[in-house]
Amino acid sequence: MKRFTTKFAAAALALTLAVPALAEPVKVGMITTLTGGGASLGIDVRDGFMLAIKQAGNKDIEVIVEDDQRKPDVAVQLADKLIQNDKVDVLTGIIWSNLAMAVVPAAVGQGKFYLSPNAAPSALAGKGCNPHYFAVSYQNDNLHEASGAYANDAGFKKTFILAPNYPAGQDSLTGFKRFYKGELAGEVYTKLGQDDYAAEIAQIKASGADSVFFFLPGGMGIAFMKQYAQSEVGLPLIGPAFSFDQNILQAVGDAALGVKNTANWSKDIDNEANKKFVEGYQAEYGRLPSIYASYGYDTANLLMSALAKAPVSDMAGFQAALEAADFSSVRGKFSFASNHHPIQDIYVREVIKEGDILTNKIVATAMTDRDNAYVSECKM
Amino acid sequence: MSAALVFEQLLNGLQFGVMLFVMAAGLTLVFGVMGLINLAHGSLYMLGAFACAAVAAATGSFMLGLAASLAAAAIAGVLVEVLIIRHLYARDHLDQVIATFALILVFTEGTRWAFGSFPLYLTLPDALSGSVALPGGITYPLFRLLIIGVGLGIAGGLFLLVNRTRLGMRIRAGESDREMIAALGVDIGKLYTIVFALGAALAGLAGALVGSVQAVQIGMGEPVLILAFVVIVVGGIGSITGAFIGAVLVGLTDTLGRFLLPQAFGLIMDASSATSVGSALASMLIYVLMALVLVFKPTGLFGKPA
Questions:
Q1: pLDDT recorded at residue B266
Q2: pLDDT of B260-296, one tens digit each?
Q3: How far is A228 from chain B (nearest CA, A)?
Q4: Does the distance separating the beta carbons of B279 and A37 come in below 8 Å?
Q5: Domain A142-264+347-376, second-level architecture
Q6: Do B5 and A203 touch (CB under 8 A)?
Q7: pTM score, two decimals?
Q8: b/e for A264-295, b at 16 or more Cβ within 10 A?
């Protein structure tokens, strides 16, 4: 009898060790932008995230989605509510770097894990890095660095550069300049959420530039592209994928055809995970996924891969499981640098037309296994 | 920096300014005549833009869209005035602010329910798109020139309406002494409805015109509403002339500030920090302007002494 009990206990113990995730439901708080000019970004991150959970058939993850309206004060209130009232285990979802700066340091300070599906300001990659903070998307500078490198290849000698005045905009221009070798025709910061670019376009025309690099995500990019076409400037445009994402292209129309942009994901990257993602996304939501949707999808898959190894309550174990990044990324290769930002390839895409739909296609690789410029500054 | 660039920036500032005027005119009339603070004015702006986008998409005619923006905003204005605002005239400003703030929420959520969260984009007809060459070797988008023309036309029309017509006389009388003109037999209720509808229609038109160059989106009215309040405070509350001067001042200050400040700082520091400091300061420049005006003229440039 005694022997039987021991055996039974051992078996039970073995079972618990094998599937620790089943025992503990996990609460995820998602703060993202669902209204206003930045809405398409947040909606895509949310939809990508939820699709991954649905495809995995995971019933243990409860996601509480909140709308930050792109306002830092609202985001802070939501984070407090999610942490104190809803008692979430993991936070995610923030699109805008100024909101990330307002929320992330306080959240990880309270011992919560934060997985970023988009914003990854340099301030959180270097000295401000944290063991509980992971950027799944990129480090802010990355895609812009690739644009700078591409500008050299394209033979641009005098580029006019433009970004909104907020942490990601500053990272953008810093990133571009890190690899760009030509001269700058001008450097302008616009207001975040600005809709009228007449003054900036006039400066571009007067500057004698041979090309324009711009980082204007969401509604800002659409407004800029339309007004740029109206003004008949005619200089070639380059930018990160954010300025030419799937939603922007549909609104801008043929004016975007042929434009080159740099991205760490594209719907034509050839791997199983990406195929499953692109097809599943179209079937579920009836539209093509954007780059933001791919980040949301990867974030959820990373989270589930870590939960399968250790519960969130085992903080050191869960952190190690996240660091291992043991999931199939839609980007193909994916691993974390020591400051918890991805090491990945960055591509050059071109805007093309597939039937009636404008979309992007990879035409070259801009950077291979790119980490980020802040790894050595991060001590953790 | 060439003269052509400066001239083009002046045009940009003027274009921004006249649109602010069309928006602020209704706000200042409503406040001047009825003593009402209407926070929902920005919602009427948004409503006009959405009406224009919806009708233009359904009929394929941009002009019908513009007409729809005027009509929709005016009708919404009448409904709002008759159903809600009318009961607030006797209340203090706090009650009006709370009630009209509630209206913002109703309009915002209602529009989201009807149109969804994604921004809409108006495509200009070919006849109105593209650029034209102006003397001095500059090219300027045709539609922005039209906006300037429409804005100046509305300013002239309003000036004539207020100063040369019987309705304008009543509006001015209403501004100076509400009780007295009621006692003289003017139907003050009807006058209020007309003024409110006029202001609403102008806001709707401004929304449609600005929405055509930018984007039609939920919540587009609130940033403009704040600027419109700055305009009427600078110009003097209740004064149409003040609203026009104030709007052009604010438009020029903002556009030229965004353009010149980074260059000015570039003389004393390196380019990157100059752009960053310059654009940060430029975004607060109009509030500095407002503060300065209030220091020297506490009732605004054309305001009547309290």
A1: 86
A2: 998 899 888 887 788 888 888 988 999 999 999 999 9
A3: 10
A4: no
A5: 3-Layer(aba) Sandwich (3.40)
A6: yes
A7: 0.85
A8: bbbbebeeebbebbbebbeeebeebbbbbbbb
